[in-house]
Design goal:
heterodimer; A: about 50% strand; B: mainly beta; 6-stranded mixed beta sheet
């Protein structure tokens, strides 16, 4: 079955950096677009970034553009999110998700999420 | 940018039908997907491409997107359906994914 496991979260100071990882199993990773989505405490879902199955095409939300970078390593079945210049408002649970298969518009399978806390 | 508007809350008695709306300009020209999120859990896809149901999702869940407002309908509502529900589209004009603000479904 499809499994997505996030890691790399934790407490970081404002201005700091963190790299999230998502390890995938149960499907052919290189066949699917992947997505990062976050949820601030008590708030709704917010899209962060998308990456094509080959990794050649990437999209980032305006709120993170220039600070966060999505990437993937298909040989390692892994998705990444490099987060730089972190701000308090980046505090959230971060989910990685696998697309349904239609080309990147519909996250079908989600990991359990990893908490990132940005605080001094 | 694209904005999806959902009612903050919907309440329904057990056995009745809950309808959750998702409004936005030209939403009828975009495929809408719906997610259920129970407290403390990751979201689960319940409807994709306006009206398709993933395997394992009960037939009680259905969707429509005829024009400016998409609707998620849950018939014969059960206590276990109590959750937050989010609509979502991909805005091809900006290449951004957009979520609605979410609707809290309360089963009375």
């Amino acid at each position: 079955q499809v499994q997505l496991v996030e890691s790399g979260g934790g407490l970081v100071k404002p201005g700091g950096s963190l790299r999230l990882s998502c390890t995938a199993s149960g499907f052919i990773f290189s066949d699917y677009y992947m997505t990062w989505i976050r949820q601030a405490p008590g708030k709704g879902l917010e899209w962060v970034a998308d990456i094509s199955n080959s990794g050649s095409t990437k999209f980032h939300a305006d709120s993170v553009k220039g600070r966060f970078t999505i990437s993937r390593d298909n040989a390692k079945n892994s998705l990444y999110l490099q987060m730089n210049s972190l701000r308090a408002e980046d505090t959230a649970v971060y989910y990685c998700a696998r697309d349904h298969g239609g080309g990147g518009s519909c996250p079908e399978y989600w990991g359990q999420g990893i908490l990132v806390t940005v605080s001094s | 940018s694209f904005v999806l508007t959902q009612p903050p809350s919907v309440s329904v008695a057990p056995g009745e039908t809950a309808r959750i709306t998702c409004g936005g300009i030209t939403i009828g020209s975009n495929s809408v997907h719906w997610y259920q999120q129970r407290p403390g859990q990751a979201p689960v896809l319940v409807i994709y491409y306006d009206s398709d149901r993933p395997s394992g999702i009960p037939e009680r869940f259905s969707g429509s997107n005829p024009g400016n407002t998409a609707t998620l309908s849950i018939s014969r509502v059960e206590a276990g359906d109590e959750a937050d529900y989010y609509c979502q589209v991909w805005d091809s004009n900006t290449d951004h994914m957009v979520f609605g603000g979410g609707t809290k479904l309360t089963v009375l």
